[in-house]
Design a protein that fits this description.
The complex is a heterodimer of chains A (about 160) and B (about 500). With about 160 residues, chain A is mainly α. Chain A is about 75% helix and about 0% strand. Chain B has a two-stranded antiparallel ribbon with strand order 1-2.
């Protein structure tokens, strides 16, 4: 039941995006040729997503879907149970990485994120962490700075090579 | 013709040309395999190196590099769901699933072979089409291209048979995302919210990196720090590669079809490589028997995409050299390089320099063969990477994805977009919203809108009465009806089997 609810919520989020896009296209006063295509997409997308919102929560449908899912013989990848907590933790790590990229730039963020993630999340030993961080950082430096001569984002602090 | 063919071959078998081609193939694979680089950047960076070279030497170098970009681009896609280039995104659907099942070697063997074979076939189709190109190219105006795009959009149903409503929802989301940016016809900024970086719209790579690479990493991490991409050991031995290679030849009819389709899509300027691979993937799903395994690690999904990936390069070269109209963005850069080298593309290439055109065909053939063969020995080592623990794999993949997202246009906002799509992509994966229609819609949407406007401006709504348009619309309707019927049949079968199981349990 929990799965059905969260899935409906996700569909509702998509519906909100479609309706928001439709509202923007109407309120901005675009020319007909500019708004025709986005409006058609937003309306059609809203209809399909509304259908999902209305039908997704029905338990019979969810049960059938679960059975058909099993029938599809999908490879058994997820041997370890995924919990909402794990998912939130992972999304948190991703957002943390984004945050430090925006502040410190890509170079420093990589130097901060890799050891922290490996230690806190993976409980790796310091030797592996050091080798890995140095290796990844050096590979990025070698390819992008030395070979390609491109400058990576330096963040708000402007830390760039 | 034969004289020109042999003369072209003779031009290629020069030690300088061969030497430069080997270097170009290495560079092409590298530019393809590193996300965010790609063939266009490679061409742009290498053009200064060909200044002062003999014309054929310079063009061999650039063409060989550009021909194999997608061969290398499939590798990170298969192993980590990070497409090296945009057109490689479709390879992930089945290639990465195969890796998860421990069949990465097979996927890699099929991918490299299909790329090589597709590239060679594409080059030969290019050669065969040279004499009859003009009527084919003239038959495709804006209206026909629009009809062809609509035909491509019907594959949304094909790639989302698990839930058609969710597939359409994803596809319309993709179509809508494709409208972000300045409207090329009116100059009106749509959904740009006065932000300059959105004027050119959202880049496909930022979406693909998020929806596929980051969402896969979220899933991997959510399974625990000890989880691996592949639960069973990835077999990368020669026997696995051989299995993949054999599959390409066993599925020779599919290989041939997708190569030819890829070449034809390449010929039509403006459609691009992304459209070619997705259309060929849809074609493979629609026409192959027992197609319920597509998207769950079906080798035919890899073959269909990878043949199209490389064969379309042959197709896109054709209008570039014959009419001076670049068939793709890469060819536009290459066209500039041709001019730098003193080669003037146009109909005279066919009449006065046919040997050089054949030389280009041979360069593509040889580069594709070398590109595929040179990667075979490396697959064994690359495959082991997918067996690393999540705690070791996630950090570098995330770093590469973010760097790739930033490098595409140099906008830090693209990094944020990638993260947003990573989270959204994870939601889509978790709640069974197929991710392929999103990408298909995003790629084909702007093209559809553009050609629709052009067609209406030229012919009004009467454009739908043009013969080729009627033919393509009819094919679209048939394709749609057939896919819906297949989906209905599949669901009915599942329900019947479930009823039988319930009845047996009750007994």
């Amino acid at each position: 039941m929990q799965r059905v609810k969260s899935s409906t919520l996700f569909a509702m989020l998509l519906l909100l995006i479609f309706l928001g896009a439709l509202y923007v296209s109407i309120s901005k006063g675009w020319l007909l040729s500019s708004r025709l295509f986005p409006q058609l997409c937003a309306i059609a997308g809203s209809i399909f997503t509304l259908w999902i919102v209305l039908t997704e929560g029905r338990s019979k449908k969810a049960e059938l879907k679960k059975k058909s899912f099993l029938k599809m013989k999908k490879p058994a990848v997820a041997k370890v149970e995924m919990t909402p907590r794990n998912e939130i933790v992972m999304i948190g790590w991703l957002l943390f990485f984004l945050g430090i990229i925006l502040i410190f730039g890509l170079w420093m963020a990589a130097l901060i994120f890799i050891p922290l993630f490996m230690r806190k999340f993976g409980q790796e030993n310091w030797k592996t962490i050091s080798l890995y961080t140095a290796g990844t950082w050096f590979a990025v430096y070698l390819v992008f700075t030395l070979a390609m001569k491109v400058s990576l984002y330096g963040g708000v602090l402007g830390i760039a090579w | 013709m034969i004289d020109a063919m042999l003369s072209g071959l003779y031009m290629v078998f020069d030690w300088q040309v061969i030497g430069l081609m080997l270097l170009a193939v290495f560079l092409g694979n590298f530019f393809g395999a590193v996300p965010g680089l790609g063939g266009n950047l490679g061409l742009a960076l290498l053009i200064p190196f060909v200044f002062g070279m003999k014309p054929f030497l310079g063009l061999s170098f650039l063409l060989a590099m550009h021909s194999v970009v997608h061969t290398g681009g499939a590798i990170p896609g298969i192993l980590f769901a990070i497409p090296g280039t945009g057109p490689n995104a479709a390879t992930i659907l089945d290639g990465h699933e195969m890796t998860k099942q421990g069949r990465g070697g097979e996927a890699m063997g099929a991918s490299l072979t299909a790329s090589g074979v597709g590239g060679v076939l594409g080059a030969f189709v290019l050669a065969l089409l040279i004499p009859i190109l003009r009527p084919i190219a003239m038959a495709f105006g804006s209206a026909e291209i629009f009809a062809l795009i609509v035909f491509g959009l019907t594959f949304i149903v094909v790639v989302s048979r698990e839930s058609i409503s969710k597939g359409f929802s994803s596809a319309f989301f993709g179509l809508m995302l494709g409208t972000v940016g300045l409207n090329p016809h009116t100059g009106v900024g749509r959904y740009t919210f006065n932000m300059l970086w959105l004027w050119d719209g959202i880049h496909i790579i930022t979406i693909v990196l998020g929806v596929f690479a980051l969402s896969e990493m979220i899933e991997l991490g959510a399974r625990g720090s000890g989880a691996r991409i592949a639960d069973s050991e990835i077999r990368m031995g020669w026997d696995q590669l051989q299995k993949g290679i054999k599959a390409v030849f066993q599925e020779w009819w599919l290989t041939l079809r997708t190569s030819v389709i890829g070449t034809f899509i390449g010929i039509i300027p403006g459609l691009g490589g992304d459209a070619a691979t997705w259309i060929c993937y849809g074609h493979a799903v629609q026409t192959c028997k027992n197609n319920q395994t597509f998207g769950r690690g079906d080798i035919r999904g890899v073959i269909g995409v990878e043949t199209a990936n490389n064969s379309k390069e042959g197709g896109s070269l054709l209008p570039t050299i014959v009419f001076g109209i670049p068939g793709s963005s890469g060819m536009a850069i290459l066209l500039g390089a041709f001019l730098v080298l003193g080669i003037i593309p146009g109909p005279k290439m066919i009449t006065d320099h046919l040997d050089m055109v054949w030389g280009m065909v041979w360069v593509m053939v040889i580069a594709n063969v070398i590109g595929a063969v040179s990667l075979f020995p490396l697959t064994r080592y690359m495959g082991q990477l997918a067996f690393l623990r999540g705690s070791l794999l996630i950090p570098p993949i995330m770093v590469i994805s973010m760097v790739g997202a930033y490098l595409i246009r140099g906008f830090w906002q693209d990094v944020i977009v990638t993260v947003i799509f990573g989270i959204l992509g994870y939601g889509m994966k978790k709640w069974d919203f197929s991710r392929a229609p999103l990408i298909l819609g995003f790629i084909l949407g702007p093209l559809a809108e553009d050609y629709l406007h052009k067609s209406i401006n030229l012919w009004g709504f009467a454009f739908i009465t043009r013969p080729v348009v009627i033919l393509l619309f009819s094919l679209s309707a048939l394709s749609l009806a057939y896919s819906v019927w297949l989906s209905y049949k599949e669901k009915t079968n599942i329900n019947n089997e479930q009823d039988e199981t319930v009845a047996l349990c009750k007994e």
